[in-house]
Amino acid sequence: MKQWRRGFAVTPPELTKDDERYPGHDPRYAKLSEKELPLTESLALTIDRVIPYWNETILPRMKSGERVIIAAHGNSLRALVKYLDNMSEEEILELNIPTGVPLVYEFRREFQTAETLLSG
């Protein structure tokens, strides 16, 4: 179970279309094709979604001078922390980001991580 929750490339068993948790049953995803709906996901797959969004949307806003607050699901945050802190697959397995506790990143001019602070 820990490998599913904290591991890097291990995925839980796939959902089937008749499972009530299947995302295709949720009207919020009605515009997505079946191919775009995840049936399972690992941290590696989450990184594949999160890092392009970081590079294409969040980082340009920061470079333009905006301060950015990110509130996200635990695995999305772990994906971003792994990337920003250049953590190994073994290190990310042990990382725990407490719920509701701010995690503050300060960046140098080149937008490389300068300091990470766990507040609270």
Automatic annotation (TrEMBL):
Alphabetical UniProt keywords: Gluconeogenesis, Glycolysis, Isomerase
Record carries keyword Isomerase: yes
Highest rank taxon of the organism: Bacteria
One Pfam family named in its UniProt record: His_Phos_1
E.C. numbers: 5.4.2.11
BP terms from Gene Ontology: gluconeogenesis; glycolytic process
Keyword Isomerase appears in the UniProt entry: yes
Molecular function GO terms recorded: phosphoglycerate mutase activity
Family in the record: Belongs to the phosphoglycerate mutase family. BPG-dependent PGAM subfamily.
Name this protein carries in UniProt: phosphoglycerate mutase (2,3-diphosphoglycerate-dependent)
Gene transcribed to yield this protein: gpmA_2
